[in-house]
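Module 6 notes. Inverse folding takes a fixed backbone as the condition and produces residue identities as the prediction. Think of it as a translation problem where the source language is geometry and the target language is the twenty amino acids. Below is one complete input and output pair. Work through it position by position during the lab.
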């Protein structure tokens, strides 16, 4: 089966979060199910630099007003179609924001262009290769099934995956003519509370909808988590699937990871000490026996970072240490930095994005804190499981589905892999921290939990098979 995947991020070429990891790992997992994936991704400067020599497979003189080309290349085992459109993507800054962190004003056009090309390829625009199915990721790719719906080409089945419903691609109706869709498409597919929404359009027009954990698939049917889309999603409940993400188990393997101080396995947990020491040196933490909590995250309200700001001093006062890697909201960055300043040797912080450091932290810290208010799947807790770093997580979405909470029953049965807490408040987290300190004091129990976590199946094996089944069922339905 041939699948076209359309995404705005793709590990290892361009990554701001979990979407990139999934878009990069799923095609590899699907090869064992006879699925050949080509991934369409924007030609941001980092992408263009990384791919080197590529073959031009498509040319545009007028892609929503700009010239563009599609280049094909193999990179890291992935077959990639790069949308080389300098007017849209050749700019400094990130994939979505400029150097000052401000959204590009033409994001609607940039990602409509990506979607337009996705639909063209689905319709057979590339000689020699036509997908049997298209898989769209998040709002940036969500207009692909909309264009497909109004194109005269034969229907190709489509799946739209929600990685985070908080990012919806909502814009003013003024952009509608620029999308070059027929006028009736506005009311049929795009209209959303007087404006228009790419996410809504994708949810409405794709043949199937998936999200990245079973719990999140249920949560987005509620007003609290659906963020305005819950009614529409409920109307499509029959076509909704929740499939948990796996991880790239080659890149994230403590037995072979070149980014950590010393490799180890569940049988040689003592060798984590080398990474613990390196982590302490990096963050300026004292090398005592207190537990080291780490955070590797976007620093946002979603991730509960305001609660960490509130409790940081208490973690230090309880004898713990905190190592933080991340960037995000300025006020949260400042709040955490201030806590680090007040607690030298106990709290350390690196602002920014640093892939090697994130590996070292998973290998050296004792516990990973993930106090998210909502979490579609979450990947950091899966890496933590693999690295023997105990996840302390909010009981929500994919965190709920992937961590076995250390309650009395789970501890007695020796199946616990981490701690869950609820509600996501300062009091909830405080209670979880106290439990963590108690468990950490019992070193035998702690290492049993580490070993149990390291045994968890966090690979793409099962989930890859579920996607393959879903693809097959859509094909057999004849969409
Ligand atoms: P989200 O996609 O909501 O940001 P996930 O947990 O699903 O959250 O995925 C986050 C991914 O980004 C993980 O691979 C994590 O290790 C990585 N990550 C987040 N912040 C940083 C950072 N500052 N430096 C390095 N990696 C980071």
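Target side of the pair, the amino acids:
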């Amino acid at each position: 089966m041939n699948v076209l995947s359309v995404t705005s991020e793709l590990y290892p070429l361009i990554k701001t979060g979990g979407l990139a990891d999934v878009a990069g790992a799923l095609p590899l997992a699907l090869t064992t199910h006879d699925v050949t994936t080509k991934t369409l991704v924007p030609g941001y400067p980092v992408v263009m630099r990384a791919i080197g020599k590529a073959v031009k497979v498509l040319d545009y003189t007028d892609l929503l007003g700009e010239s563009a080309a599609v280049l094909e290349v193999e990179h890291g085992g992935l077959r990639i179609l790069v949308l080389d459109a300098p007017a849209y993507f050749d700019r400094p800054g990130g994939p979505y924001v400029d150097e000052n962190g401000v959204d590009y004003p033409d994001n609607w056009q940039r990602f409509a262009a990506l979607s337009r090309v996705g639909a063209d390829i689905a319709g057979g625009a590339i000689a020699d290769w036509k997908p049997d199915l298209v898989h769209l990721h998040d709002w940036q790719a969500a207009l692909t099934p909309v264009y497909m719906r109004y194109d005269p080409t034969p229907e190709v089945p489509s799946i739209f995956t929600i990685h985070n419903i908080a990012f919806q691609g909502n814009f003013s109706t003024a952009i509608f003519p620029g999308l070059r869709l027929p006028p009736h498409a506005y009311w049929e597919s795009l209209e959303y509370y007087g404006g228009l929404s790419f996410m809504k359009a994708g949810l409405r027009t794709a043949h199937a909808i998936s999200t990245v954990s079973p719990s999140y698939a249920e949560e987005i049917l509620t007003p609290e988590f659906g963020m305005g889309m819950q009614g529409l999603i409920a109307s499509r409940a029959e076509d909704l699937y929740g499939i948990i993400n796996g991880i790239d188990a080659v890149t994230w393997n403590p037995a072979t990871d070149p980014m950590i101080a010393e490799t180890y396995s569940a049988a040689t947990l003592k060798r984590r000490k080398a990474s613990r020491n390196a982590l302490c040196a990096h963050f300026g933490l004292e090398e005592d026996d207190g537990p080291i909590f780490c955070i590797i995250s976007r620093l946002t309200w979603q991730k509960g970072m305001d609660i960490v700001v509130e409790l940081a001093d208490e973690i230090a006062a309880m004898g713990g240490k905190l190592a933080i890697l991340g960037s995000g909201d300025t006020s949260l960055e400042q709040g955490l930095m201030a806590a680090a300043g007040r607690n030298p040797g106990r709290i350390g912080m690196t602002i920014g994005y640093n892939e090697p450091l994130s590996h070292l932290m998973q290998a050296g810290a004792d516990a990973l804190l993930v106090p998210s208010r909502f979490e579609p799947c979450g990947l950091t807790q899966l890496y933590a499981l693999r690295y023997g770093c105990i996840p302390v997580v909010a009981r929500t979405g994919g965190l709920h589905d992937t961590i076995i909470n250390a309650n009395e029953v789970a501890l007695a049965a020796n199946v616990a892999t981490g701690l869950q807490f609820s509600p996501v408040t300062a009091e909830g987290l405080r209670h979880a921290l106290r439990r963590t300190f108690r468990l950490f004091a019992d070193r035998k129990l702690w290492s049993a939990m580490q070993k149990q976590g390291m045994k968890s199946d966090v690979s793409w094996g099962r989930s890859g098979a579920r996607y393959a089944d879903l693809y097959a069922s859509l094909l057999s339905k004849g969409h």
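Reference fact for the lab report: The chain is about 40% helix and 20% strand.
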